[in-house]
Every structure is written in structure tokens, then in C-alpha cells.
């Protein structure tokens, strides 16, 4: 194991999610979660008498979960060779059309504050502030200063795991997990219709719709409609 891998594993082990949001991830919309990442400063290891605490504020934006298949995932760019091997293994074990959920996130870091308070006092104060505001979509995470973003990823994994069952149940109840004869989930067909509507309004680059159709191996099916719309723009 490489040193970097060991440091990451250590950061994950020492991450504590001290306060989870009171709501799980929305099934049919975007979820905006505020976070407080609380750490001891990296230099505290040198100065044992230091009583400072680092507070990082930010937001994690979770987009609406999308229903995808192993075949679709294998068509996405940006994955390593190892990831693609994994997708191929899933295809072999479950079939290329087995539906699953795909979550996407973005991190919007906010301000960083260093306070001369013990961590316990900081945590008590933050919890009191959140309770006073009554905000259900806030989390407090205790992490490591140098690898605080790893701790944030651990939180993302946790909230995804908590939300997945409810998200799947809601999608299933609406028939959105159903797969047609072409191996395409109903949710994907609806998304394609949304993209066509956005293209008609001039809100979408045609290349984005074309890429989505090709990932589902559906461009031939929709190409007449696609080119007709381009001619009308």
C-alpha cells in the first residue's frame, strides 16, 4: 500500500459525522446541505499547548439522483481503466441493463475560520446555532486538517447510503425503474424528453443531448427528431 493510500484510509477512519442532516437526499430535486468541517490545525501536533480549532464552512449540492445502467456508466468519460473493469464485471454479473442510481455532487467551499477555543466548546456552539435556526439540512463533521476533503467524501458516502433505500422506493413506486425492450429505464426516457425541451428553448447545447443519446445507444432512434430540431433553431 502506498503512503498516500495509508493517509487517506487513516483520514477516513478518524472522520466523525457528529450531526447528520434531519432530511435525506431528495429523490426528485436538488438537495443543498450546509456543512461545518471542524478540525484541529495541522500545526497542533507540533505545539501541544495550542487550543485552536479550524472551522470550514461550505455547501454540498446533491443533484437529483439519476437511474442508469452498467452499460450507460461504461460510456461515461473520466473513469479510470480500473473503474471500467468494474463496470464490465457488473455487466457480466447483473446484465448491462440492470438499473441503479447515479448520484452527482459538487462542493462549494465557504469561509475558513480559526478560533482560539477547544473543539468541544466549538461543537457545542455550532449545535446551538443550528438548533436555533432550525435548519434541517446541516451537518457537522470532525476530520483531519490536511485531508479535510476526504472527510467530506466520507460524509457524502454516508448520506448517500442513508438516502438510497428511500430514493429507490419512490422511483419504483412511480415505475421509473422499469426498463423497456431496448434496456432503457423509464427515467432515462423522461430525461431525454427534458433535454429535447431545453434544446427547443435554446437552453441546451445540442452536443449535450447528442452525447446523452449515444450513451444510451439511442441516437439512431432519435436522430430524425434531433436534426429536425436543429434545422428549426
Written description of the protein model:
- The protein starts with a helix and ends with a helix.
- α6 packs antiparallel against α7.
- The longest helix is centred in the C-terminal third of the chain and has 26 residues.
- The radius of gyration is 22 Å and the shape is elongated.
- It contains eight helices and seven strands, in the order αββββααββαβαααα.
- The strands form two sheets. A five-stranded mixed sheet has the order 1-7-2-3-6, with helices on both faces.
- Helices cover 48% and strands 19% of the residues.
- The model has no long low-confidence stretch (mean pLDDT 90).
- The protein is an alpha+beta fold.
- The protein folds into two domains: 134 residues, no CATH class; 47 residues, no CATH class.
Number of DSSP E strands: 7
Please indicate the count of domains.
Answer: 2
* Backbone structural class: alpha+beta
Mean pLDDT, all residues? 90
- Give, in spatial order, the strands making up the sheet with the most strands: 1-7-2-3-6
Shape: elongated
As residue ranges, the low-confidence spans are none
The helix content is 40-55%
Task: Describe the sheet with the most strands.
Answer: 5 strands, mixed
Cα gyration radius (Å): 22 Å
| First and last CA, distance | 55 Å
Q: Please work out how many helical segments DSSP would assign.
A: 8
Strand content: 15-25%
What sequence of helices (H) and strands (E) makes up the elements?
HEEEEHHEEHEHHHH
Helices and strands in order:
Blueprint: H1 3-13, E1 16-19, E2 31-39, E3 53-62, E4 66-68, H2 70-75, H3 81-94, E5 100-102, E6 105-115, H4 119-133, E7 138-142, H5 148-173, H6 186-200, H7 206-215, H8 219-232
Parallel strand pairs: 2-7
Antiparallel strand pairs: 1-7, 2-3, 3-6, 4-5
Amino acid at each position: 500500500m502506498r503512503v498516500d493510500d495509508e493517509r487517506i484510509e487513516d483520514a477516513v477512519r478518524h472522520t466523525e459525522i457528529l450531526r447528520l442532516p434531519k432530511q435525506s437526499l431528495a429523490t426528485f430535486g436538488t438537495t443543498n446541505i450546509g456543512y461545518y468541517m471542524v478540525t484541529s490545525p495541522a500545526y497542533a501536533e507540533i505545539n501541544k499547548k495550542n487550543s485552536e480549532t479550524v472551522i470550514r464552512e461550505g455547501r454540498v449540492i446533491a443533484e437529483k439522483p439519476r437511474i442508469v445502467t452498467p452499460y450507460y456508466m461504461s460510456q461515461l468519460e473520466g473513469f479510470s481503466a480500473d473503474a471500467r473493469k468494474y463496470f464490465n464485471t457488473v455487466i457480466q454479473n447483473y446484465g448491462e441493463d440492470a438499473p441503479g442510481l447515479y448520484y452527482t455532487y459538487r462542493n462549494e467551499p465557504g469561509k475558513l475560520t480559526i478560533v482560539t477555543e477547544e473543539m468541544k466548546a466549538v461543537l457545542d456552539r455550532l449545535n446551538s446555532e443550528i438548533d436555533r435556526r432550525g435548519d434541517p439540512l446541516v451537518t457537522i463533521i470532525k476530520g483531519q486538517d490536511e485531508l479535510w476533503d476526504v472527510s467530506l467524501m466520507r460524509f457524502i458516502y454516508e448520506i448517500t447510503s442513508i438516502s438510497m433505500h428511500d430514493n429507490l422506493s419512490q422511483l419504483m413506486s412511480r415505475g421509473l425503474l422499469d426498463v423497456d425492450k431496448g434496456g432503457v429505464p423509464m427515467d432515462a426516457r423522461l430525461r431525454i424528453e427534458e433535454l429535447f425541451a431545453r434544446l427547443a428553448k435554446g437552453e441546451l447545447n445540442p452536443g449535450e443531448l447528442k452525447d446523452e443519446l449515444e450513451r444510451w445507444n439511442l441516437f439512431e432512434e432519435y436522430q430524425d427528431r434531433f436534426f429536425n430540431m436543429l434545422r428549426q433553431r
